Amino acid sequence: xxxxxxxxxxxxxxxxxxxxxxxxxxxxxxxxxxxxxxxxxxxxxxxxxxxxxxxxxxxxxxxxxxxxxxxxxxxxxxxxxxxxxxxxxxxxxxxxxxxxxxxxxxxxxxxxxxxxxxxxxxxxxxxxxxxxxxxxxxxxxxxxxxxxxxxxxxxxxxxxxxxxxxxxxxxxxxxxxxxxxxxxxxxxxxxxxxxxxxxxxxxxxxxxxxxxxxxxxxxxxxxxxxxxxxxxxxxxxxxxxxxxxxxxxxxxxxxxxxxxxxxxxxxxxxxxxxxxxxxxxxxxxxxxxxxxxxxxxxxxxxxxxxxxxxxxxxxxxxxxxxxxxxxxxxxxxxxxxxxxxxxxxxxxxxxxxxxxxxxxxxxxxxxxxxxxxxxxxxxxxxxxxxxxxx
Length: 390
Fold this sequence. Notes:
Elements: E1 2-13, E2 28-40, E3 47-56, H1 59-64, E4 87-88, E5 93-100, E6 112-115, E7 118-119, H2 125-128, E8 139-140, E9 152-156, E10 160-162, H3 170-176, H4 179-191, E11 199-203, H5 207-218, E12 224-228, H6 232-238, E13 244-246, H7 248-253, E14 261-264, H8 270-275, E15 284-287, H9 300-305, E16 309-312, H10 320-329, E17 339-343, H11 346-354, H12 357-362, E18 365-369, H13 370-382
Parallel strand pairs: 11-12, 11-14, 12-13, 14-15, 15-16, 17-18
Antiparallel strand pairs: 1-2, 1-4, 3-5, 3-9, 3-18, 5-6, 6-10, 7-8
Helix pairs in contact: 4-5, 4-10
C-alpha cells in the first residue's frame, strides 16, 4: 500500500427536476475542493502506479470547481461522475512509473510517461473506425475516473506514453505536462484543415487558445493569427504567438478582411454568432470550449452561399501525442513557454480553484510540482507531525 496526498472534489447530487438527460451542470451542486491523504491499495493488472512530477490546471477544472452564484450548480458540462467519496481531479500531467500491473509488458518502472485523458474502450463501432476521440464508452480522467492531482496515482497503462528519451531536464518535464492540451489544439487545427497562408482567428487566450495559436503559426503555416481576449494579462502574454491581439470590442469594431478559420476556445459561443458574417468563403468555425450555452446562427444564407463549415473538436488521440513530441524535440514548438506559474503545494492549488480569478486574470498555464509537495510532506513528518487531512 502507498499513501498519497490528493486534491479532490465533492458535491451534492441533485438533478434538476423534469430534465430528461441532464448535463453535469444540472446534476451537481455546492462543489467543495479538498486536500486529503488516501491509500492506494493493490495495483490492478492493467494499471501502472506513478510518482507524479507536474500536473496542470485546465479550464475544465475551473468550470468543475465553480458554483453558479444563484443556483449553486457547477459550471462544468463535460462528462462527469462525482462519487460520494469524491473525485480526484486533474488530467494533464507527467510522472515516473514506480510499479506496473501483472498484465503490463510494454512499460517498466523508472520510465517517464505523459498521459492521455480519454480512456477508450477499443471495441465500439467508433473505436473500430479509429475515431477514438469519439469513443461511445469513453471515460475521462479526472472527471469520470480519478485523476492526476496526487503525489502517487494509479492509471490505465493504455493511456501512458513512454517519453523517457525526451526528458533531459526540468523544463522538459514541464513541457511534457502540456502535451495533452497541445494535443487538443493539434487535433483542432487538423479538424479545421488549416492550410499554409490562411488567416486564423482565435477567441480566448487561455492555454488551449495559445497552443492553437502556436501550432497555427509555427506548424500549420497560418499567415496571420488574430487573438481576441478580454483579460489584459493574457492579451499581453499572447503577443508572443499572435500577429494581432484585441479586446472583444476592438475586434468586433474592425475585424480583418479575410478570415479562413475561427477557433472558439473561450466557451463564449456568442462570439461565433457575432463574427459569422465576416467568415470568408469556404471558411471553417471550430468549437472547442463548452459551457452548455446554445449556439445561434442567424446568417444561414451567408453560410450556405459561402459553404462555411461548423465543426466540433474534442480530444487529443489518433496520433496527436506523437506529433507533438516530435515537434517539441525538433524545437519547432516550446510547450514550457505557456507556463506562467509553478506552485509546490496542493493546498495552494485548492485555494486557486476556490478563488479562480488569480488563475484567469494573472496566469496562462499553472502547474504544480508534486516532487516539492512530497518534500513538504517529508519535512512535516520529520518535524514531528503527520500531514493533516484538510
